[in-house]
Amino acid sequence: MQTSLTRRQAIARLAGAAGTAAFAPSAIATSARRKQLLVLFLSGGASQLETWDPKPGTKFGGPFRAINTSLDGVRIGELLPHTAKIMHRLAVVRSVNSNLPDHEKGHYAIQAGRLAPGYPVLGSAVANLLEQPGDVLPGYITLRRAGPKAYTDTGDAGFLGAKYEGVRVIDGLPPENLMVPAGINAAALQSRDAVRRAADQRFLRSHAKAPINGYSTTFDQARALMQRREIFDLQAESPKDIERYGRHDFGKNCMLARRLLEAGVPCVRVVHFDWDAHQDNFYWHQMRCAEFDRTFVTLLDDLEQRGMLEHTLVVVTGEMGRTPQINNLGGRDHWGRAWSVAMAGCGIKQGIVHGATNDLGTEVKEHEVGIGDLFHTYLTALGIDSSADYDLNGQTNPIADPAAKPIKAVLA
Amino acid sequence: MPINPAKTQLIIEHKNEVPLMSCVFSPNGKHLLAGGRDASIACIDVASGKKIALAGHDSWISEMARTANDLVLTCDYVGHVIAWDCSGDVPKLRWNIEAHPCTIRALAVSADGKSFATGDRDGALRLWHCTDGKLLRELPRSEHPLYGIALHPDGKRIITADRQPKKPTIKVCDLTSGSELLKIEVPELSGYRNVEDIEWGGIRGLTLTPDGALIIACGRGGYDGPASLLLYDTSSGKFQRKLASTMKGFSYTARCHRDGFIMAASGEIAKGEFRAWHRDEDKSLAETATNGPCTCLDIHPDHKRFAITQAIGKSSYPETGVVAFYEWEG
């Protein structure tokens, strides 16, 4: 299958590219400004009660207190003290009901905006929908550590094909074989590439175009990365900045994410692991939140100071929330019926808390939001018409679930 | 006549509105204080059975300990320590300090009752005056969360236990300088799993025998292993013995009876037990199953009675708690 632009897509992309201004380059040369997406994925499922939707002093509230934030009348968990100071820059949806208390299903559904299999996840969709002529870098890059691998790599491009599959950067290292092997000179490299292209052309005469174009794109992207491998060199950052982001995996990956966005990658996803706290939930959330909190705020500050936040949508989500009930081992288990997602940046209203859960946090009581609504919202914030269709060789398929709709209350 | 640990008798049970995770008798034995998943402390008059709530914390109660002179110390998930004066008919709050900026999971009182030590989630280790809660000194920080502390009866050493992934570690340090005298790695109590990259186990409690000769580390023998106690020689660090339950789960607390046996409180999902061993024998002397996880145990100062706390619920979500008082027959 091959994708092509529908009329509405073309208009949406033009809208997305409109208003681009000269962008102050950092150490890394940047491509023209466009809408971009950064997903901070809290893998395993963060507890909404310890983060965005605390219920202190209630039956299931846990041991931690709620703290005031920069947003009048809004309190969040005390484990996020830095985030509390920038709440006026965020939009938090406290009324997500995905009803999927399952890692794999949740990972796919929250990122694809659907339950039905085979659809592209957010990163792949955005890579396709925000693609511009002349793009050479991958459209979607996921940053994560080597293990665990569970849950985080499901889905991806779906029917969009290999071209829009996410490139995985493991442990902050450039993708393997980025360097030209020793002993291969430029002439040999060019000659080999010519052979590959000739083979592609021959295959194209008798085989489906999509996979061959996908392979070809992979080679082109690999070559582009080879030419831009300085992106991965975090040593180019000052020790002070490395310290600000944190020396842990999440901090390093967030710094790398910023560099990739600066380089023009349309979508970057950073996976923050270990939120699946079936035991000792409160211990683990202290540890996880301590890493997330400062790094998240540092990243947002940097994006804002560099003028990137106005064209970059930042989404903080996991695949589900955690049970209000606390189990025997001090853990919270899987819960999809009432949890929270946060957003910032491009296309998002600042200082909004949308929806509410009941007093115990067990159910949504106001403005329920589903996975499809979130997907529509992300695309709309990026200037993409989420009611448009993919055109797959004449066969159309809705970009987002037609039964869902954007959350107007959080859109700028 | 020595106590026979196999002959125990339930005296009374007190229900509690929330699961209970810790308990301690007051120094004079008149009260038992118990705390858990709320900010109030259940205070039970041992003689009358009358139960009152003590207010002062504003988070869940994590650890408790008694001093040699009237005080019970309680600490919580947000780093506060409260001293309760238990010399009267009702315990009274003597002082309340913000000892740490995060959860305190380790608390121990010196044998002379003059000082106490606290350890927190971030590995900070602090020594305090019991009388007024003033900081005596900060000791070298652990790189891992501290889950147990003991102050040696010689007054010169402090023993800590952490939750280091893959190899929870006990350290014996000089109490004055903080310098490390001995390090004991305890991988047997690790519950590390690659799939989540999380240490699910670790040392969950630390106790010294009254003579200070042995360190008792509480925990679980692997990710899904039995509730276990590991005994180490305090001076050499040499492993002495593993005291394992037949029940899978965690041992949370160990207490030493003056007649030489060790009692442990242990729990698993929706069940628990307390069990007694002689320190020189692998086979346990007695065990008693409990309805819910047995989260803590304390021996009355008269060494004729003891109390346990439990978390009670029909499924894996406990919603209430129990304090149960037992006595040894004879």
Task: Summarize the structure in words.
The complex is a heterodimer of chains A (412) and B (330). Chain A is α/β, with parallel strands linked by helices and 412 residues long. Chain A has helices at 7-17, 81-84, 103-112, 122-129, 186-206, 209-227, 239-245, 249-263, 281-305, 371-381, and strands at 3-4, 36-42, 66-68, 75-77, 90-96, 140-144, 167-170, 267-272, 312-317, 321-322, 334-335, 339-345, 352-354, 356-357, 364-366, 389-392, 395-398. Chain A folds into two domains: 3-21 and 29-173 and 230-410, Alkaline Phosphatase, subunit A (3-Layer(aba) Sandwich); 178-227. In chain A, the strands form five sheets. Chain A has an eight-stranded mixed sheet with strand order 7-6-8-2-9-12-5-13, with helices on both faces. In chain A, α3 packs parallel to α10 (371-381), α5 runs antiparallel to α6 and α8 (249-263) packs parallel to α9 (281-305). Residues 1-32 of chain A have low confidence and may be disordered. Helices cover 0% and strands 57% of the residues of chain B. Chain B is built from no helices and 30 strands. The radius of gyration of chain B is 18 Å and the shape is globular. The termini of chain B are close together. The chains are: A alpha/beta (412), B mainly beta (330). Chains A and B meet through α9 of A and loops of B.
